[in-house]
Amino acid sequence: MFKITFLGATETVTGSCYLVQYGNSKFLIDCGLFQGEDVYKRNFDEFDFNASEIDFVVLTHAHMDHSGLLPKLFRKGFTGKIYTTPPTTQLAEILLLDAAKIQESNYSRDNQNGNTDIIYTTFDSLNAIAGLVSVDFDEEVNISEDIKFTFRKAGHILGASSVFINLGEKKIVFSGDLGRVDEAIIESFINLQENKYNADYVVMESLYGGVVHQTRPDATNELINLINETIKRGGNVVIPSFAVHKTQEILEILKEAFAKNLIDQEVQVVLDSPLAIKATSIYSNNTTFFDPVKYNLTDPQIVRNIFNFPNLKVTRTHKQSLKSSNKIKSIFIAGSGMAEGGRVIRHLINNLPHKNNMVIFVGYQAEGTKGREILEGQKEIELDRKRVKINADIKRIEGFSSHGDHNDLLEWLKNFDQTGLKKVFLTHADPDRSEAFKTALDEKGITSYIPKWKEVVELD
């Protein structure tokens, strides 16, 4: 008998956190930040457990909605280890320090009246980073005689994993975030699993249940066409992009486009995100995790330079960033991906009012975020305490999602022996998407369930 408490990513997308209790042991799968105006306040709430009683944490990947409350966990008394894969360790280090800087900046800005709390500080992030323990994919970790787990590749981003856990004789799998069969840069989960896995229970994401993505080639062509359309009329393109994976994918596409003269050679690409610059360096130093079918991994120098090209300007300093803002006929790639902060805010302020410009969203925009507001057709938006008119073209390209679509999710689930699978728990999605995927599983005779926020489920 064991229990799972669904503490996040239930009835919403973000805030992934699952408390597993088995015998006298308590551990977490992920401890993520809630993102979006409607749920962000949850980050300030007390945990629904005593942090000092948690034995260890298993981290599926580095994205903030999975890792972003780990510093708070240490702030509240946790002293254990955080097990994750080597690339996730590297990415989590830069992301958690960046998150702490944002927390401290927001606190300094908003605490004029002394009525604002801070979720965590740089000190807390450093404690979390010190607690990271790297474990290779497919290497079994023995916590005790009855608790063991293994990381398997999940696609999605560099280092992302699904976690296969043995609790005594029971087997439970947490999917983490799943990538696509047609993966970008890294290996897909589909290439890695030759035999069926046995599991009693599976907790899996369902972000794009009922949705089939545009193909990557079609998405690439659409991006290039939109860029050319904008440049031709003398405008700029702003791409709010997530620092990890999305930016690297877009850079690779643009490099190839310039090499084939598909974009005017006079156009400059400005990578204006300190975090994305660091993440790109980490990707370049982890080419062993790249797809060997797509890349010649026997020549590391070629792969290492995969994101560099003559038209790319990298702005590391604030001064360089400000100078780059005045360029015309440019492509600005900047974070944050949901336009909630970062240097992209200045580029949006500069470019949104002008009809010749275009903003292209290439990733998911959570409810309550500035990105979602812009995407939904607002005529005016508040950015950095300024009211900004929206006259630029606003586009969204669906085909660059690093999350698997409906068919990808079903493909991942095929890797399990269905005869022994008792139940699949669907999380990490808006309710309509989970329901759509549940309907598909029902039709296949697979028992599934959509848990409520903070629901406790006992399993045997």
From TrEMBL:
SMART domains: Beta-Casp, Lactamase_B. Residues 247-374 form the Beta-Casp domain. Pfam families: Beta-Casp, Lactamase_B, RMMBL. CDD domains: TTHA0252-CPSF-like_MBL-fold. Keywords: Hydrolase. GO terms for molecular function: hydrolase activity; RNA endonuclease activity. This is MBL fold metallo-hydrolase.
